[in-house]
């Protein structure tokens, strides 16, 4: 477990405390929600970029070459 210290303006800290937002469970929930939201946004951006600039189709030989290269990298890394 990691301990995190944050600094908030007094009024905001008091309001957050009264609302139960400063408990470890509440903070964990907020961080997880924000991380999920950011991942979804990055995925949407990647989809938009790909839709605007589609990759050319690959031949079966090109696909197999990519698979072989990936496998060779994994073996070289000892995994």
Protein architecture, described:
This protein is mainly α and 79 residues long. It has one domain (10-76). The chain has 3 helices and no strands. The chain has helices at residues 10-18, 24-52, 60-76. It is elongated, with a radius of gyration of 23 Å. The protein starts with 9 loop residues before the first helix and ends with a helix.
Q: Portion of residues in helices?
A: 55-70%
Q: Which structural category fits the helices and strands?
A: mainly alpha
Overall average pLDDT: 96
Morphology call: elongated
Order of helices and strands: HHH
Low-confidence stretches: none
- The biggest beta sheet, please? none
β-sheet strand percentage: under 5%
Determine the number of helices (DSSP H or I, runs of at least 4 residues).
3
Integer-rounded radius of gyration:
23 Å
Distance between the termini: 28 Å
Tally of extended strands?
0
Total number of domains: 1
